[in-house]
What does this fold into?
Amino acid sequence: GESVGLHLPTLSVQEGDNSIINCAYSNSASDYFIWYKQESGKGPQFIIDIRSNMDKRQGQRVTVLLNKTVKHLSLQIAATQPGDSAVYFCAGDYYGQNFVFGPGTRLSVLP
Amino acid sequence: KAGVTQTPRYLIKTRGQQVTLSCSPISGHRSVSWYQQTPGQGLQFLFEYFSETQRNKGNFPGRFSGRQFSNSRSEMNVSTLELGDSALYLCASRGTGGRNEKLFFGSGTQLSVL
It folds into this structure.
């Protein structure tokens, strides 16, 4: 079946360092990907998205990279702050019908 | 612009009961999707409604059902509750549900089945 997975369930980084969260997907037909951030007690919040005709997209302190050859995407967070502590999900569009979510990576920012 | 609103925020039910959850999408959004989130399975797609019609359905038993009203508000119903139904139920809306359209999530309804 379809799957979108993350390489690491947890990630700890020092405040001020850059964070990289990885994600692999299996469906070649997925042409749209989203990264979400979920804080405790809240629903997932949109961070950044990317279409399959792009390799890279930048937002405010965040960058998403897409490698279609190896079906891999990553989220880079620059100058990680305590407020970035959350669970991060990648999601891939499944034939335009629904999104398939990865299991999530918990990012902890150390002081 | 108000976000996606889900009610109630918390629910406690016992096995065998049924429950109805409510979702109001962002104004103007016509597509509403429901997801179940558990620590073990992550976010699992339940179904999507668009213009009062179920457009897509995930791999859940028939005890899980939903509907959408003409104002795009949606309800989800779970009958004959089981302990394994304990989860955070998330509602998400998007404009038309077309491709390359992001989902906007509510804060969810935390359901506990005792």
